[in-house]
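Aim 2 progress update. The chain analyzed this quarter is reproduced below.
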Amino acid sequence: MTQERSPLDGVQELARLARVLSMFGVVGGTETLTEELVRPETCMRRTQTSLHFMGYGAGKWRSESWFSAELERLSRREGEVRFLISRNTEERALDSLADLQRAFPRTLSVRLMNERSLFRVVIIDRRQLILSHYGHEVILGDGQNAQGWQSPQLIVENGTEWSLIIPFMILYNEIWAKADPLDDQPGAGQRARRRFE
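Predicted structure tokens:
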């Protein structure tokens, strides 16, 4: 005989889940990347000292006009922007990033990882993490990230003993240390792709 659950049981379980999520530093989330709180331009504008991105090709960042203006702003503040992207990013995108890196050499650093990016990670000022993954088709190698804007985003802040931001910062730095710097000379995309193939 199964015991019937009361509505109070569900409320108590949700309260318990909320407590556990807060222990991990989870302060919120969004259903898609299109929501204002997690859009790339909003993240950049909130950045005071550093923004670290790990993902497939940074297309939602580099191709926008606001990105250069934000790099300029952070350059004046002696800020740091790091992009850790997949080496198999298309050549044109790598060339675009190389151009930006050349224009902002003290602010923007781009490195190429050999591994496939399973997570999309944004770390703002070492105090906030915005985290998602690329969907099962991409993770399993069966597709491209055509649905990146539709992926749910988890928002995590530093300040709790079990905050997820610390392990993701460590993971980011370990992958960064092994990744190859993107050459900032013309034709960088072609040279980087050749090394990948």
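Residues 93 and 99 are 10 Å apart (CA to CA). Strands lie at 26-30, 50-55, 80-86, 108-113, 119-124, 128-133, 153-157, 180-181. These observations will guide the mutagenesis experiments scheduled for the next reporting period.
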